[in-house]
Amino acid sequence: MVALTVLGVLAVVWGVYTVWTWWREREMLPRLVDKTVLITGCDSGFGNLLARRLDQLGLRVFAGCLTEAGVAELRQSCSERLQPIRMDVSSSDSVQQAFLVVTNSVGSKGLWGLVNNAGIFGPLGSVEWPSIADYQAVLNVNLLGMIDVTRTFLPLLKKTHGRVVNVSSVGGRLAAPSSTPYSVSKYGVEAFSDALRRGMRCFGISVHIIEPEKFSTSIVQEENVRRSLQRMWESLSSDMKAEYGKDYVDEILKGYSDGSYKDPTIVAMAMEHALCAARPRSRYEVAWGARWVAMPLTWLPTDVGDYVIRLMLPWMTPVPAACREGR
Protein backbone atom coordinates (compact mmCIF):
# COMPACT_ATOMS: atom_id res chain seq x y z
CA MET A 1 0.00 0.00 0.00
CA VAL A 2 2.80 2.37 0.93
CA ALA A 3 4.62 1.54 -2.28
CA LEU A 4 1.53 2.32 -4.36
CA THR A 5 1.11 5.63 -2.53
CA VAL A 6 4.72 6.58 -3.20
CA LEU A 7 4.38 5.64 -6.87
CA GLY A 8 1.17 7.68 -7.12
CA VAL A 9 2.86 10.73 -5.60
CA LEU A 10 5.83 10.37 -7.94
CA ALA A 11 3.49 10.07 -10.92
CA VAL A 12 1.67 13.25 -9.92
CA VAL A 13 4.93 15.14 -9.37
CA TRP A 14 6.24 13.93 -12.74
CA GLY A 15 3.03 14.94 -14.47
CA VAL A 16 3.05 18.42 -12.91
CA TYR A 17 6.72 18.86 -13.81
CA THR A 18 6.09 17.74 -17.41
CA VAL A 19 3.19 20.16 -17.87
CA TRP A 20 5.11 23.01 -16.22
CA THR A 21 8.14 22.37 -18.45
CA TRP A 22 5.98 22.23 -21.58
CA TRP A 23 4.30 25.53 -20.67
CA ARG A 24 7.60 27.19 -19.79
CA GLU A 25 9.25 26.16 -23.07
CA ARG A 26 6.44 27.50 -25.27
CA GLU A 27 7.60 31.13 -25.07
CA MET A 28 9.58 32.30 -28.10
CA LEU A 29 12.08 35.15 -28.32
CA PRO A 30 10.77 38.51 -29.55
CA ARG A 31 11.96 40.09 -32.81
CA LEU A 32 13.40 36.99 -34.43
CA VAL A 33 13.83 39.03 -37.62
CA ASP A 34 16.78 40.74 -35.93
CA LYS A 35 18.61 37.43 -35.40
CA THR A 36 21.35 36.03 -37.65
CA VAL A 37 22.27 32.36 -37.68
CA LEU A 38 24.99 30.28 -39.36
CA ILE A 39 24.20 26.62 -40.09
CA THR A 40 26.72 24.10 -41.41
CA GLY A 41 25.82 21.08 -43.53
CA CYS A 42 22.85 22.55 -45.38
CA ASP A 43 23.12 20.57 -48.63
CA SER A 44 20.48 18.15 -47.36
CA GLY A 45 19.03 16.61 -44.22
CA PHE A 46 18.58 18.41 -40.91
CA GLY A 47 20.57 21.49 -41.92
CA ASN A 48 18.62 22.02 -45.12
CA LEU A 49 15.30 21.70 -43.29
CA LEU A 50 16.38 24.06 -40.51
CA ALA A 51 17.63 26.70 -42.96
CA ARG A 52 14.24 26.73 -44.67
CA ARG A 53 12.31 26.89 -41.40
CA LEU A 54 14.36 29.79 -40.05
CA ASP A 55 14.06 31.61 -43.36
CA GLN A 56 10.28 31.32 -43.14
CA LEU A 57 10.37 32.70 -39.59
CA GLY A 58 12.19 35.78 -40.86
CA LEU A 59 15.66 35.15 -39.43
CA ARG A 60 18.72 35.96 -41.49
CA VAL A 61 20.47 32.70 -42.32
CA PHE A 62 23.95 31.87 -43.59
CA ALA A 63 23.62 28.31 -44.88
CA GLY A 64 26.95 26.54 -45.23
CA CYS A 65 26.97 24.00 -48.09
CA LEU A 66 29.71 21.63 -49.14
CA THR A 67 28.67 21.64 -52.79
CA GLU A 68 27.80 24.26 -55.37
CA ALA A 69 24.63 22.29 -56.10
CA GLY A 70 23.55 22.79 -52.48
CA VAL A 71 24.20 26.51 -52.73
CA ALA A 72 22.22 26.80 -55.98
CA GLU A 73 19.26 24.80 -54.65
CA LEU A 74 18.85 26.95 -51.53
CA ARG A 75 19.41 30.19 -53.44
CA GLN A 76 16.63 29.26 -55.82
CA SER A 77 14.09 28.04 -53.25
CA CYS A 78 14.52 30.48 -50.34
CA SER A 79 14.17 34.23 -49.80
CA GLU A 80 16.94 36.79 -50.11
CA ARG A 81 17.35 36.71 -46.32
CA LEU A 82 19.01 33.34 -46.68
CA GLN A 83 22.57 33.48 -48.00
CA PRO A 84 24.03 30.09 -48.95
CA ILE A 85 27.83 29.93 -48.84
CA ARG A 86 30.39 27.27 -49.76
CA MET A 87 31.82 25.80 -46.58
CA ASP A 88 33.86 22.66 -45.97
CA VAL A 89 34.16 22.31 -42.19
CA SER A 90 37.11 19.92 -42.54
CA SER A 91 39.14 22.70 -44.23
CA SER A 92 40.40 25.54 -42.01
CA ASP A 93 40.87 27.73 -45.09
CA SER A 94 37.23 27.22 -46.07
CA VAL A 95 36.09 27.98 -42.50
CA GLN A 96 38.14 31.20 -42.48
CA GLN A 97 36.67 32.28 -45.82
CA ALA A 98 33.17 31.70 -44.46
CA PHE A 99 34.08 33.71 -41.35
CA LEU A 100 35.14 36.67 -43.50
CA VAL A 101 31.89 36.52 -45.48
CA VAL A 102 29.76 36.48 -42.31
CA THR A 103 31.86 39.12 -40.53
CA ASN A 104 31.74 41.52 -43.46
CA SER A 105 27.98 41.10 -43.58
CA VAL A 106 26.98 41.34 -39.90
CA GLY A 107 29.63 43.84 -38.83
CA SER A 108 29.41 44.83 -35.16
CA LYS A 109 25.98 43.24 -34.74
CA GLY A 110 27.52 39.80 -34.33
CA LEU A 111 25.95 36.38 -34.75
CA TRP A 112 23.02 35.12 -32.68
CA GLY A 113 23.28 31.41 -33.44
CA LEU A 114 25.76 28.82 -34.69
CA VAL A 115 24.42 25.40 -35.61
CA ASN A 116 27.13 22.76 -36.03
CA ASN A 117 25.17 20.27 -38.11
CA ALA A 118 27.65 19.09 -40.78
CA GLY A 119 28.46 15.42 -40.40
CA ILE A 120 29.17 12.12 -42.11
CA PHE A 121 28.38 8.56 -41.06
CA GLY A 122 31.61 6.93 -42.08
CA PRO A 123 32.37 3.24 -42.67
CA LEU A 124 30.33 0.44 -41.10
CA GLY A 125 31.50 -2.91 -39.81
CA SER A 126 33.31 -4.41 -36.86
CA VAL A 127 35.49 -2.25 -34.60
CA GLU A 128 38.66 -3.65 -36.17
CA TRP A 129 37.65 -3.18 -39.81
CA PRO A 130 38.08 0.60 -40.39
CA SER A 131 41.59 1.94 -40.89
CA ILE A 132 43.08 4.87 -39.00
CA ALA A 133 42.46 6.93 -42.15
CA ASP A 134 38.76 5.99 -41.92
CA TYR A 135 38.61 7.19 -38.32
CA GLN A 136 40.48 10.38 -39.21
CA ALA A 137 38.11 11.20 -42.07
CA VAL A 138 35.07 11.00 -39.79
CA LEU A 139 36.75 12.94 -36.98
CA ASN A 140 37.84 15.68 -39.38
CA VAL A 141 34.22 16.49 -40.20
CA ASN A 142 32.17 15.48 -37.17
CA LEU A 143 34.48 16.62 -34.38
CA LEU A 144 37.57 18.56 -35.42
CA GLY A 145 35.62 20.53 -38.04
CA MET A 146 32.96 21.38 -35.48
CA ILE A 147 35.61 22.56 -33.02
CA ASP A 148 37.31 24.66 -35.69
CA VAL A 149 34.03 26.32 -36.72
CA THR A 150 33.06 27.00 -33.11
CA ARG A 151 36.40 28.52 -32.15
CA THR A 152 36.38 30.67 -35.28
CA PHE A 153 32.89 32.12 -34.78
CA LEU A 154 32.89 32.54 -30.99
CA PRO A 155 33.95 36.22 -31.20
CA LEU A 156 30.79 36.98 -33.20
CA LEU A 157 28.63 35.04 -30.73
CA LYS A 158 30.09 36.95 -27.77
CA LYS A 159 28.79 40.19 -29.24
CA THR A 160 25.17 38.97 -28.94
CA HIS A 161 25.45 36.56 -25.98
CA GLY A 162 24.23 34.05 -28.53
CA ARG A 163 23.74 30.30 -28.78
CA VAL A 164 25.65 27.30 -30.07
CA VAL A 165 23.66 24.25 -31.18
CA ASN A 166 25.71 21.09 -31.68
CA VAL A 167 24.18 18.08 -33.42
CA SER A 168 25.31 14.93 -31.69
CA SER A 169 23.47 11.59 -31.73
CA VAL A 170 22.32 8.76 -29.51
CA GLY A 171 25.51 7.24 -30.94
CA GLY A 172 27.35 9.76 -28.80
CA ARG A 173 25.90 8.18 -25.67
CA LEU A 174 25.50 4.56 -26.76
CA ALA A 175 28.29 3.16 -28.94
CA ALA A 176 27.64 0.40 -31.46
CA PRO A 177 30.56 -1.78 -32.71
CA SER A 178 29.09 -1.55 -36.22
CA SER A 179 29.56 2.25 -36.44
CA THR A 180 32.57 2.87 -34.20
CA PRO A 181 34.18 5.84 -36.03
CA TYR A 182 30.84 7.67 -35.98
CA SER A 183 30.28 6.97 -32.27
CA VAL A 184 33.84 8.00 -31.39
CA SER A 185 33.30 11.33 -33.14
CA LYS A 186 29.92 11.90 -31.47
CA TYR A 187 31.27 11.05 -28.00
CA GLY A 188 33.79 13.82 -28.73
CA VAL A 189 30.95 16.17 -29.70
CA GLU A 190 29.30 15.47 -26.34
CA ALA A 191 32.52 16.16 -24.42
CA PHE A 192 33.31 19.34 -26.32
CA SER A 193 29.73 20.59 -25.96
CA ASP A 194 29.69 19.98 -22.21
CA ALA A 195 33.02 21.76 -21.78
CA LEU A 196 31.92 24.61 -24.05
CA ARG A 197 28.64 25.08 -22.15
CA ARG A 198 30.43 25.33 -18.82
CA GLY A 199 33.24 27.50 -20.16
CA MET A 200 31.11 29.99 -22.13
CA ARG A 201 28.39 30.57 -19.53
CA CYS A 202 30.26 33.56 -18.11
CA PHE A 203 30.21 35.17 -21.58
CA GLY A 204 26.44 34.76 -21.80
CA ILE A 205 26.72 32.11 -24.54
CA SER A 206 24.51 29.04 -24.11
CA VAL A 207 25.23 25.64 -25.66
CA HIS A 208 22.58 23.11 -26.69
CA ILE A 209 23.05 19.48 -27.72
CA ILE A 210 20.74 17.70 -30.18
CA GLU A 211 20.69 13.91 -29.84
CA PRO A 212 18.58 12.32 -32.60
CA GLU A 213 18.02 8.61 -33.04
CA LYS A 214 17.41 7.02 -36.48
CA PHE A 215 16.01 9.54 -38.95
CA SER A 216 15.50 9.40 -42.69
CA THR A 217 18.46 11.36 -44.07
CA SER A 218 20.83 10.67 -46.94
CA ILE A 219 23.71 9.44 -44.76
CA VAL A 220 21.72 6.46 -43.48
CA GLN A 221 19.70 5.57 -46.56
CA GLU A 222 19.64 1.81 -47.00
CA GLU A 223 21.44 1.91 -50.35
CA ASN A 224 24.24 4.08 -48.94
CA VAL A 225 24.57 1.79 -45.91
CA ARG A 226 24.65 -1.27 -48.15
CA ARG A 227 27.40 0.26 -50.32
CA SER A 228 29.43 1.23 -47.26
CA LEU A 229 29.23 -2.25 -45.80
CA GLN A 230 30.06 -3.88 -49.13
CA ARG A 231 33.05 -1.58 -49.64
CA MET A 232 34.38 -2.38 -46.17
CA TRP A 233 33.77 -6.11 -46.61
CA GLU A 234 35.65 -6.20 -49.90
CA SER A 235 38.66 -4.49 -48.27
CA LEU A 236 39.07 -7.29 -45.71
CA SER A 237 41.56 -10.12 -45.98
CA SER A 238 40.28 -13.61 -46.70
CA ASP A 239 41.14 -14.67 -43.14
CA MET A 240 39.10 -11.79 -41.68
CA LYS A 241 36.15 -12.63 -43.94
CA ALA A 242 36.26 -16.24 -42.80
CA GLU A 243 36.45 -15.16 -39.16
CA TYR A 244 33.37 -12.94 -39.36
CA GLY A 245 31.26 -14.52 -42.09
CA LYS A 246 28.83 -12.80 -44.45
CA ASP A 247 25.99 -13.26 -41.94
CA TYR A 248 27.72 -10.67 -39.75
CA VAL A 249 27.28 -8.06 -42.50
CA ASP A 250 23.68 -9.09 -43.12
CA GLU A 251 22.87 -8.71 -39.42
CA ILE A 252 24.23 -5.16 -39.37
CA LEU A 253 22.25 -4.31 -42.49
CA LYS A 254 19.02 -5.45 -40.82
CA GLY A 255 19.38 -2.68 -38.26
CA TYR A 256 19.50 -0.05 -41.00
CA SER A 257 16.72 -1.47 -43.18
CA ASP A 258 13.97 -2.20 -40.66
CA GLY A 259 11.75 0.69 -41.79
CA SER A 260 11.93 2.46 -38.42
CA TYR A 261 13.37 5.73 -39.71
CA LYS A 262 11.43 8.81 -38.68
CA ASP A 263 10.62 12.14 -40.30
CA PRO A 264 13.69 14.42 -39.87
CA THR A 265 11.43 17.46 -39.52
CA ILE A 266 11.16 16.89 -35.77
CA VAL A 267 14.95 17.19 -35.47
CA ALA A 268 14.84 20.52 -37.31
CA MET A 269 12.06 21.58 -34.92
CA ALA A 270 14.27 20.77 -31.92
CA MET A 271 17.13 22.79 -33.41
CA GLU A 272 14.73 25.66 -34.10
CA HIS A 273 13.54 25.58 -30.49
CA ALA A 274 17.12 25.67 -29.22
CA LEU A 275 17.69 28.85 -31.26
CA CYS A 276 14.35 30.63 -30.89
CA ALA A 277 12.84 29.67 -27.52
CA ALA A 278 13.11 32.05 -24.59
CA ARG A 279 14.05 29.10 -22.35
CA PRO A 280 15.65 26.37 -24.47
CA ARG A 281 16.86 23.05 -23.11
CA SER A 282 20.52 22.26 -22.75
CA ARG A 283 19.93 18.82 -24.26
CA TYR A 284 17.32 17.54 -26.72
CA GLU A 285 16.82 13.77 -26.97
CA VAL A 286 14.80 13.64 -30.17
CA ALA A 287 12.15 10.90 -30.58
CA TRP A 288 10.93 8.35 -28.09
CA GLY A 289 13.63 5.80 -28.89
CA ALA A 290 16.33 8.26 -27.87
CA ARG A 291 14.59 9.41 -24.70
CA TRP A 292 13.02 6.19 -23.44
CA VAL A 293 15.30 3.44 -24.79
CA ALA A 294 18.82 4.61 -25.67
CA MET A 295 19.37 7.09 -22.84
CA PRO A 296 18.00 4.85 -20.04
CA LEU A 297 20.33 2.09 -21.25
CA THR A 298 23.27 4.39 -20.50
CA TRP A 299 22.12 4.75 -16.89
CA LEU A 300 22.36 1.02 -16.20
CA PRO A 301 25.48 -0.61 -14.72
CA THR A 302 27.82 -1.33 -17.62
CA ASP A 303 27.52 -5.12 -17.63
CA VAL A 304 23.73 -4.97 -17.25
CA GLY A 305 23.48 -2.43 -20.10
CA ASP A 306 25.63 -4.61 -22.36
CA TYR A 307 23.43 -7.64 -21.63
CA VAL A 308 20.22 -5.72 -22.38
CA ILE A 309 21.69 -4.45 -25.67
CA ARG A 310 22.65 -7.99 -26.74
CA LEU A 311 19.14 -9.13 -25.83
CA MET A 312 17.06 -6.26 -27.27
CA LEU A 313 19.25 -4.85 -30.06
CA PRO A 314 21.16 -7.79 -31.60
CA TRP A 315 21.96 -5.84 -34.78
CA MET A 316 24.18 -3.53 -32.65
CA THR A 317 26.38 -6.43 -31.53
CA PRO A 318 26.23 -9.24 -34.13
CA VAL A 319 28.27 -12.33 -33.38
CA PRO A 320 31.11 -13.27 -35.79
CA ALA A 321 31.08 -16.74 -37.30
CA ALA A 322 34.23 -17.77 -35.42
CA CYS A 323 32.63 -16.89 -32.09
CA ARG A 324 29.43 -18.76 -32.91
CA GLU A 325 31.38 -21.85 -33.90
CA GLY A 326 33.45 -21.64 -30.76
CA ARG A 327 30.44 -21.85 -28.46
From TrEMBL:
Stored InterPro entries: NAD(P)-bd_dom_sf, Sc_DH/Rdtase_CS, SDR_fam
Any single GO BP term: steroid metabolic process
Keywords for the protein's UniProt record, in alphabetical order: Oxidoreductase
Tagged with keyword Transferase: no
One Pfam family matching this protein: adh_short
Entry's transmembrane regions: none
Domain of life of the organism encoding this protein: Eukaryota
GO molecular function: oxidoreductase activity
Family per record: Belongs to the short-chain dehydrogenases/reductases (SDR) family.
Name of the protein in its database record: Retinol dehydrogenase 16-like
UniProt source species: Branchiostoma floridae (Florida lancelet)
Gene: LOC118412173
